[in-house]
Design a protein that fits this description.
Distance between the termini: 59 Å
Largest sheet: none
Number of domains: 1
Oligomer: single chain
Helix content: 55-70%
Order of helices and strands: HHHHH
Strand content: under 5%
Mean pLDDT: 83
Number of strands: 0
Shape: globular
Radius of gyration: 17 Å
Number of helices: 5
Length: about 120
């Protein structure tokens, strides 16, 4: 008879609950803004994989690409050991926050947030 450990049932999640909530929040904002980029004529998405998914199956493809990205990030976060997992998720949250804010700014003001940065 074998007894499963609690570690086997509950994988070591990276960071604290606030960091994980921040990830899901900025991921969701980025997803919504990215979907809107495909609906307005004055903006375009720069990620070629997301564009390919959109051209293949429409807005469902955009959502599928975003869910795939999130799943990969969560999986990598679970595989990394501390403190690398926390650093990784913090870097991802920062990246998503930048991209989401740029997309929202682009949608609202028709110009990217950092137009001088080669975007």
């Amino acid at each position: 008879m074998s007894v499963a450990t609690s570690h086997a049932r509950n994988p070591d999640r990276p960071g604290g609950p606030r960091l994980r909530k921040a990830f899901y929040l900025v991921w969701f904002v980025d997803l919504m803004a990215t979907m809107q980029l495909f609906l307005v004529p004055y903006a375009r998405e720069l990620n070629p994989i997301t564009v390919m998914f959109y051209e293949s199956i429409g807005l469902v493809g955009v959502a599928l690409a975003a869910v795939t990205y999130a799943a990969i990030i969560v999986a990598v976060g679970h595989l990394l050991s501390r403190p690398f997992d926390v650093g990784f998720v913090t870097a991802v949250v920062s990246s998503y926050a930048f991209f989401a804010s740029n997309n929202v700014f682009l949608l609202l003001f028709r110009e990217p947030l950092f137009s001088g940065a080669g975007m």
